[in-house]
């Protein structure tokens, strides 16, 4: 550190004291001097880009030193709406609108704020009370039970037949 009390600022060449010092690329700057050379925006360690001892914001650096040529830095405003008809390309005719069926109603229910319906009671099943079994969402208490004996089930210890759930003992009795 020089005798004047601090390093010299990379922008204004005046003394930079510790409390106002910003270090970049081995040089010291006053916080108020650590600005983009082009647009004057305040910089920090995440927004600075250095080129030949000059500091820039990343946007100005990209414009000044980034790739040049067709398609670079132009933005969406310069995109062409040409459909290629001059090259003999025929645009596709839109087909009739067909509504899609969602194979996973749970995803649709989550997206639009609804919920799955319990196959046993028909009421909504919310995340806090939900347990999955036989491809459906069930209420953990009261509904997730064997259809024959009423025993509480676990998702790993159940057997299902035609959308209904059973304990393994009753399921095997039904098969035989």
Automatic annotation (TrEMBL):
GO cellular component, one term: nucleus
Entry superkingdom: Eukaryota
Keywords: Acetylation, LIM domain, Metal-binding, Nucleus, Phosphoprotein, Repeat, Zinc
GO process terms (BP): muscle tissue development; sarcomere organization
Basic and acidic residues biased stretches: 83-96
Cell compartments where the protein resides: Nucleus
GO molecular function: actinin binding; metal ion binding; structural constituent of muscle
Region (Disordered): 83-106
Major location category of this protein: nucleus
Boundaries of every LIM zinc-binding domain copy: 7-67, 116-176
InterPro entries: Znf_LIM (IPR001781)
Function according to Swiss-Prot or TrEMBL: Could play a role in neuronal development.
PANTHER family associated with the record: CYSTEINE AND GLYCINE-RICH PROTEIN 1, RHO-GTPASE-ACTIVATING PROTEIN LRG1
Self-association state and partner proteins as the record states: Interacts with ASCC1; ASCC2 and TRIP4.
Name assigned to this protein: Cysteine and glycine-rich protein 1
């Amino acid at each position: 550190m020089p005798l004047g009390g601090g390093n010299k600022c990379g922008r204004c060449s005046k003394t930079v004291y510790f409390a106002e010092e910003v270090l970049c690329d081995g040089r010291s700057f006053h916080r108020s001097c650590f600005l983009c050379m082009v647009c004057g925006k305040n910089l920090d360690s995440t927004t600075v880009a250095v080129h030949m001892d000059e500091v820039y914001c990343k946007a100005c650096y990209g414009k000044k030193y980034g790739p040049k040529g067709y398609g670079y830095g132009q933005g969406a405003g310069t995109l062409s709406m040409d459909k290629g008809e001059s090259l003999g390309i025929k645009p596709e005719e839109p087909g009739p609108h067909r509504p899609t069926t969602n194979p996973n109603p749970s995803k649709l229910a989550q997206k639009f704020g609804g919920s799955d319906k319990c196959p046993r009671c028909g009421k909504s099943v919310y995340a806090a009370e939900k347990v999955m079994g036989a491809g459906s969402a069930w209420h953990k208490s009261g509904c997730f039970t064997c259809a024959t004996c009423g025993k509480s089930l676990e998702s790993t210890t159940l057997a299902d037949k035609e959308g209904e759930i059973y304990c393994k003992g009753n399921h095997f009795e039904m098969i035989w």
